[in-house]
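As a warm-up, study this chain.
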Amino acid sequence: MGYFITFEGVEGSGKTTQIKLLAERLVAHDFNTTLTREPGGCAIADKIRAILLDAENRDMSPMTELMLYAAARSQHVGDIIVPALNLGNVVLCDRFFDATTAYQSFGRGIDRGAIDTLNSLACQGVAPDLTILIDCDPSIGLARARHRIETSSGPREERFELEELAFHQRVREGYQRLAMEHSHRFIVIDGNEKAEDISTMIAVQVLARIPEDLRGIR
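Now compare it with the structure written out below.
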């Protein structure tokens, strides 16, 4: 069995940049590494991602949103995460079930018990060994995220960036609560530090935790 690491944070926290930098470091240290993301990560889940993040779908109800995330996760876990872990890979996932709790429970106000039930069904017993939370002031993160969208030539995945600041503040509070509840699994990183320093801090923490016997597995 491999090792499963997830990255979490509010919009614009820098987690996507950091997860790519960690993937490069792990490969350099001879760990077979699978880099993936949610929502998405496989063909069917990517189609659901397009619906979830399309700004034209701002009228989507919170419960519909939750169900779509669960559907995408179920497909992604079965298609990508479980096979990679079975190969002995280190799996890096940009968001996982903690994001659903932070966004749909703390952010949207959906009952946490319902979310826990759906996550349990979708994850098929899979849970992260380690979660990196890059903590960031939502006002700073949103400014970064909106700038990225405006300067990108890709699809405008901005439905969440259009939410009011108060929503993102609730999401941050949700992440902070989860980090306290699951302190054995979470590492909280200050997202205000320089990107290079953050990358080094994460690498040191991760390399100290990954089992050495996963190195060089083919």
